[in-house]
Design goal:
4 helices; ABM_dom; globular; alpha+beta; Alpha-Beta Plaits; monooxygenase; eight-stranded antiparallel beta barrel
């Protein structure tokens, strides 16, 4: 399955959503503006967006919640090891209060993977970061940048867009 993402103003992204009612488009607000995301195996909707292969998934992405995308640039030679680490991780995040969905997205063009998680609230995500499960899941990460990272990873946080009434 593939996933597609693009950025733009919410007004622009809402027009795309209105023109494509058959696509389950998820609109999000971030500090940088709007983000649209959808999963589909055979239809490209965005003329200038990012395409990913969904290589791991848990849960269903809901229309409400808090989204955290960890953007991780990985060198070509390190991709197999990076993916192996995720595929063999403990799945304790799924047991956390407020967890809704997880996706590991492999980029089709560039080298920046996206670790996509959705939470009921930002508070639920913060609780995960402070939990023993988080410490256990990240215990083998060193303080310095791992060799397979080409650049520093960065977080994008969003809230799911809700139409104001």
């Amino acid at each position: 399955m593939n996933a597609y993402m693009t950025n733009g103003t919410i007004d622009f992204l809402k027009k795309i959503e209105q023109k494509n009612p058959d696509i389950n488009l998820h609109l999000m607000n971030s500090s940088e503006g709007g983000i649209a995301y959808y999963e589909n195996s055979n239809r490209k909707l965005f003329s200038s967006g990012r395409e990913y292969e969904v290589i791991m998934q848990t849960g269903e992405i809901l229309k409400e919640g808090f989204v955290v995308m960890n953007n991780i640039p990985v060198s070509d030679e390190s991709k197999p090891g990076f993916e192996h680490r995720f595929k063999n991780r403990s799945n304790t995040v799924e047991d956390m209060t407020g967890f809704q969905a997880f996706r590991l997205l492999r980029p089709s063009i560039n080298n920046t993977y996206v670790v996509f998680t959705q939470w009921h609230t930002a508070h639920d995500f913060e609780n995960w970061k402070e939990s023993d499960q988080f410490k256990e899941a990240h215990k083998n990460q060193s303080a310095k940048k791992p060799a397979h990272f080409m650049e520093q990873p960065f977080l994008t946080t969003c809230t799911m867009y809700k139409e104001e009434e």
